[in-house]
């Protein structure tokens, strides 16, 4: 029997401390969202955290990678997500090159992201320790992210599993410890071997959130559009499809188009009636203009 507590529907917004306290007590569920309707759905479903990922560049905007996503675009989508959230903790990705140049740049951009969108935490890819310390010191909670870091996929040789060799695994262990020491409240472990993720999880006192990192992490995160079958350009091995909504949506639109063309839609039930006296007056007016 699991020693983890189950999720309890609580209207109180989840805090950073709640996330940290979940370590060794219950598993954390995290998904992405990029707009208000999706945010409302996942929040009602009871997830603990919602990530507004820069994956929106690919999933929502049709781009080939995440690198072109701007801070303005992130603020736009984050603001929409925050509008739909009552319970979950909303975390926002810091876009490429909004934090790499240095602590001052990172602090300025993170402050703007938090202030203008209303998110309560940010996520940085990689072990940019001075930047993380600057943000945490200013009161901005930071989620770390190591392993496969999509913003640096070109440097990593593509979207490949990281830490497969002992030396690389040791480096990731050290990076996780350094992120914890720098003040991260949680750490995403992406596309690393399950035994390595288990070792990291056992060694750090903050929750680990896995994505393609095995079952021993303290929580899991998936891209909503991947798990619902709404994004088919690329499906990582670690994704589980919980629904095929893309197929259902396509069929629904096809049915609609066919009914429009055949005249089956709309029916009188989908329209509005008119008072008979007013209709007679309208017809009189129309005859006068003939």
Automatic annotation (TrEMBL):
Q: What GO cellular component term, any one, is given?
A: cytoplasm
Tell me which positions the record assigns to the signal sequence: none
Q: What is the lineage of its organism?
A: Bacteria, Pseudomonadati, Thermodesulfobacteriota, Desulfovibrionia, Desulfovibrionales
Q: Which residues bind Mg(2+)?
A: 54, 93, 125
* Catalysed conversion reaction: (6R)-5,10-methylene-5,6,7,8-tetrahydrofolate + 3-methyl-2-oxobutanoate + H2O = 2-dehydropantoate + (6S)-5,6,7,8-tetrahydrofolate
Family matches, as InterPro entries: Pantoate_hydroxy_MeTrfase, Pyrv/PenolPyrv_kinase-like_dom, Pyrv_kinase-like_dom_sf
Q: What is this protein called?
A: 3-methyl-2-oxobutanoate hydroxymethyltransferase
Major location category of this protein: cytoplasm
């Amino acid at each position: 029997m699991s020693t983890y507590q189950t999720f309890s529907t609580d209207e109180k917004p989840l805090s950073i401390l709640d996330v940290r306290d979940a370590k060794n007590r219950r598993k954390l569920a995290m998904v992405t969202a990029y707009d208000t309707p999706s945010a409302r759905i996942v929040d009602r479903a009871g997830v603990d955290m919602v990530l507004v990922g820069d994956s929106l560049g690919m999933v929502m905007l049709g781009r080939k990678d995440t690198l072109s996503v701007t801070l303005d675009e992130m603020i736009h989508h984050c603001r929409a997500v925050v509008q739909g959230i009552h319970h979950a903790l909303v975390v926002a990705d810091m876009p490429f090159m909004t934090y790499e140049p240095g602590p001052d740049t990172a602090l300025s951009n993170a402050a703007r992201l938090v202030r203008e969108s209303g998110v309560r935490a940010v996520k940085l890819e990689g072990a940019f320790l001075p930047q993380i310390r600057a943000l945490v010191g200013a009161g901005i909670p930071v989620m770390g992210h190591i392993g496969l870091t999509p913003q640096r996929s070109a440097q990593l040789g593509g979207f490949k599993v990281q830490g497969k060799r002992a030396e690389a695994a040791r480096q990731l262990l050290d990076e996780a410890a350094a992120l914890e020491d720098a003040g991260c409240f949680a750490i995403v472990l992406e596309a690393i071997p399950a035994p390595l993720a288990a070792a990291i999880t056992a060694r750090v006192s903050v929750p680990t959130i896995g994505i393609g990192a095995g079952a021993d992490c303290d929580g899991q995160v998936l891209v909503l559009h991947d798990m619902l079958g709404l994004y088919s350009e690329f499906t990582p091995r670690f994704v589980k499809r919980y629904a095929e909504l893309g197929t259902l949506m396509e069929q629904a639109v096809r049915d609609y188009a066919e009914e429009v063309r055949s005249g089956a839609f709309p029916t009188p039930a989908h329209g509005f009636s008119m008072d008979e006296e007013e209709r007679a007056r309208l017809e009189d007016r129309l005859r006068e203009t003939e």
